[in-house]
Structure formats: structure tokens, C-alpha cells
Design a protein that fits this description.
With 464 residues, this protein is of the alpha/beta class. It contains ten helices and 21 strands. The radius of gyration is 24 Å and the shape is globular. It starts with a helix and ends in a 22-residue tail after the last strand. 43% of the residues are buried.
Length: 464
């Protein structure tokens, strides 16, 4: 019918408009952080084709200079009382961690495995903080034995457990209370103001603090709030920070705890999609300077240190997921560009990691950046599932087998947030580029990797 045709035309027009904006996002990232030569992306000073030839595809490539630039951007925003921490969960590669340690950052962990990686990277134990709602007894014991800087307590049971561990080891355990506030100040994924496994409900503060005073082997020294993630509005961050200060002041005044650290959490975002804008760092700098001045004038909190862990903001734009086109096929009027990598390496880019509406990441044919985008295509991976789609209704130049396809903003929550074991494809390597040099920092997987933790059963083996 005419209405149906009109609807299809409207949907097609909307898809093309979104894709043009997505192309603008590619231009933003390339212009801000990378270079190109003859229409080909350079990472550092190395053409993407040379990296593909040297290390193969699919692979993750990180530009060290961008990581260093992002760290400096944040350091330039922070007053002296603020300490910069990197959340390992964003990307835990040892070489990446050392980039942050070399710039004086601390590390935030959320598991025993991340504790091990933090220590192995050379991080001083006092520069490690441990958050997470489900820490096991064994994880807590290892953290206490390692004498890390602070453990963020998220339930009264956890406080009792830490006290017992401290008593058995003859140690006093430094803790901060992670608070689940009564309201939320927003963010792409709101954390506060609702039932949550994260943190101690604000309305329970009095009871929890009274209990903690009876526990001899823990020392309450800090407060931690984390109310949202992927935040791109400085005013939203300001509301969260001021909420955190108000709670810290209440605890210090009402319960006479000396607050030594205020962890304002993370949540700084990077713009993936057409409707998103960059976080205004100049505005944020002004906000943090005002907060620092107010803390200095506060007799209860003037001596406290502040912690910020901006998460993906520090690493995301440094990473590119590099794949190669293996097939170009048509099916019932649609063109499908098939890659040698997909959602098993980069679940977030497929829209299957928290997106309710599938939107394309900034994606491009990296060896044809300057060519006109005249063809519409679906960009899919090699997996046997329709979920393995990295781009819908993407405008591309005419694609050929062997072209290099890239997903930008792949430094955070990419490889380690993905189902890499699905269909037993080999794990992708990671490469760190530093100017004209490129180094393998995680080898490509091999078929034996899938067998390394398997054990042949010994039977009979009765359970006592």
C-alpha cells in the first residue's frame, strides 16, 4: 500500500541519516586521535595494512600515545587532592596497566584475578582499591594479606568477614563504605536510588556505622559512591560528586569517623553514537576546582584525599578492532560484508552488551577512508548466529575481499567483555603501537588453548 511504501521510504531515510552521523563520528575519532595517508588509517605512524600484514587479523591494536594523552587530559583537570585510578576491568592487559602505572595512577580491581594482575604489573599494594558486591572469603583474605590500600565494603556481612580475617592475620583492614544513595543523578546506566546488589543502602548508614564501631580489626576511613556509567554531562557528574560529599560529611559528623578518602567513582563516558557529545573537560575542571575549595574549607573533610577512576575514558579511544573482509555476498536485495572477526571478540559493538536499541559503533573500511560511501551493507562476523552483526545499514565504499574493516572506540570493554570461547575461534592478539614501533602484547590464540584447562576424568572417583 501507499502507507507501507511511505513507511519503508521513511525508515530507509532515517537509517541513512543515522549512518551519515555515524560517519561523522568516524571522522571525529580519526581527526582527533589518528592520521591517514592516501585514504589509509595510520596508528601511530604505521599504516593499518602494515599492521595487518605483520600481526594478522582479527586483532586489537592500541596506540600508546593516545593512552598517555588521555591520562594527561585528566591530570590537567584534577586538583592536587585528587588521585587518578584506572579500573582494570576496562582492559587488563599487563602492558596497558604499566602505561598507567608509569604515569602515577593507582589501580581499581574487582576480583582475585585482577588483584593478581595488578600486583604482577608492579603496582604498589597501597595503590590498589578493591570494589565489587560479591567478593568471596578467599578474595578478601588475599586482599588483606596483600595489604592493599582500601577494600570497599558493600554489605554488613562483608564487614564482619573482613574483621574476622583481620583478626586471624593480626592486621587492621582499611575499608571504605560503598553507599547506594537514595536518589540517582542520572547517567547512561543509573546505579543509585533503587534496589541494588551494589553498596549499602543510604538509609542503613546509621546501623552499619554503629556495627562497624564494634569491629576491632577494621578501620573505616573512606566513602565510595558510584551512581552511573557512560556519563557525558559534567553537570550530572557534579550532582553525583556533591551527593558523595554530603554523605561523607554526614558519616564524619554523626559517627565521628575520620574520612581520609572520598572515592567519587568513575562513569566518564566516550561518545559512541550520533546523538552523543564529548564530556566538557573545561567545565568539569571548573566544577572540581570549586569542590576542592569547598573541601579545603570543611573542617571535617579538609584533610581527605579524593579518588577518581574514569574507566573507559582513559583507554577507549586508543583502541581499534581490526578485521578483514572474507566474503561479499548478496541475499534478496541486501549486500552482506562478512568479516573474519565479530561479536565473539567485540560483543559491545554488536549491540549485545547492554544496548536496547542497536546502534552502530564508529566503523569504517580502514584502507578506503577517503572514498565515497555509495553502497549500503550489513556488516557481519563469521559466527553461526544472526546476533553476529557489527553494522546495520552501513554506508561504505564498494567493498572487496581483503579490505580492512575497523571498529573504533575499542580500547575498553571489548575483548575482555566478549564470549571469546563461542564456536572456538582463535583468540585475537593485542598489539601496542608506540610511534613507529609495534609490539605484540598478547599472542594470537591457538587450537591447543581450548584444551589447556581440560582434564581427563579419573573414574571411579567417589565423593566422600
Amino acid at each position: 500500500t501507499g502507507q507501507q511504501r511511505s513507511k519503508r521510504v521513511s525508515e530507509t531515510s532515517t537509517a541513512k541519516t543515522q549512518d551519515r552521523k555515524s560517519t561523522d563520528q568516524v571522522s571525529r575519532v580519526v581527526d582527533q586521535y589518528f592520521k591517514q595517508r592516501n585514504g589509509e588509517l595510520l596508528i601511530g605512524n604505521i599504516p593499518i595494512s602494515a599492521l595487518a600484514k605483520q600481526f594478522g587479523t582479527p586483532s586489537f591494536i592500541y596506540d600508546k600515545s593516545i593512552i598517555q594523552r588521555k591520562i594527561e587530559e585528566v591530570h590537567n583537570v584534577l586538583p592536587n587532592r585528587f588521585n587518578l585510578y584506572y579500573s582494570i576491568k576496562a582492559n587488563p592487559n599487563q602492558s596497558i596497566l604499566k602505561c598507567f602505572l608509569d604515569k602515577g595512577c593507582g589501580l581499581e580491581i574487582a576480583s582475585q584475578g585482577e588483584l593478581s594482575q595488578a600486583l604482577q604489573s608492579g603496582c604498589i599494594s597501597k595503590q590498589i582499591i578493591f570494589a565489587g558486591p560479591g567478593k568471596t572469603f578467599e578474595e578478601l583474605k588475599l586482599a588483606v594479606q596483600s595489604q592493599i590500600g582500601e577494600i570497599h565494603v558493600e554489605s554488613i556481612d562483608e564487614a564482619h568477614q573482613l574483621n574476622s580475617i583481620g583478626e586471624s592475620l593480626g592486621l587492621t583492614v582499611p575499608i571504605a563504605l560503598r553507599i547506594n544513595p537514595t536518589d540517582s543523578s542520572g547517567g547512561a546506566m543509573q546505579m543509585g536510588g533503587k534496589p541494588s546488589p551494589f553498596g549499602i543502602d543510604e538509609e542503613s548508614i546509621d546501623d552499619v556505622c554503629d556495627t562497624i564501631k564494634t569491629l576491632r580489626n577494621i578501620r573505616m576511613q573512606g566513602v565510595h559512591l558510584f551512581m552511573g556509567t557512560q556519563i557525558l554531562d559534567a553537570k550530572t557528574l557534579e550532582k553525583q560528586y556533591r551527593r558523595c560529599i554530603a554523605i561523607a560529611r554526614f558519616i564524619a559528623k554523626t559517627h565521628q569517623f575520620k574520612i581520609e578518602t572520598i572515592d567519587f567513582g568513575g562513569g566518564w563516558g566516550t561518545p559512541y553514537f550520533p546523538h552523543e557529545n564529548e564530556l566538557d573537560l573545561r567545565h568539569l575542571k571548573t566544577i572540581l576546582e570549586k569542590i576542592d575549595t569547598e573541601l579545603s574549607a570543611d573542617e571535617l573533610l579538609s584533610g581527605c584525599n579524593a579518588v577518581l577512576e574514569p574507566g573507559r575514558f582513559l583507554i577507549n579511544e586508543a583502541g581499534v578492532y581490526l578485521t578483514q573482509v572474507t566474503r561479499v555476498k548478496k541475499s534478496r536485495g541486501k549486500t552482506f560484508v562478512i568479516l573474519d572477526g565479530g561479536m565473539h571478540h567485540h560483543l559491545a559493538a554488536s549491540g549485545n552488551l547492554g544496548q536496547t536499541i542497536k546502534r552502530n559503533y564508529p566503523i569504517a573500511i580502514l584502507n578506503r577512508l577517503s572514498e565515497l560511501k555509495t553502497h549500503s551493507a550489513e556488516v557481519v562476523g563469521p559466527l553461526c548466529t544472526p546476533l553476529d552483526c557489527l553494522g546495520r545499514n552501513v554506508q561504505l565504499p564498494k567493498v572487496e575481499v581483503g579490505d580492512l574493516f575497523g571498529v573504533f572506540l575499542s580500547g575498553a570493554y571489548a575483548r575482555t567483555s566478549s564470549p571469546t570461547g563461542f564456536l572456538s575461534h582463535l583468540l585475537p592478539p593485542e598489539i601496542l603501537v608506540d610511534g613507529e614501533n609495534a609490539a605484540l602484547i598478547r599472542r594470537r590464540g591457538n587450537s591447543e588453548d581450548f584444551l589447556q584447562d581440560q582434564i581427563a576424568p579419573t573414574l571411579p572417583n567417589p565423593i566422600p
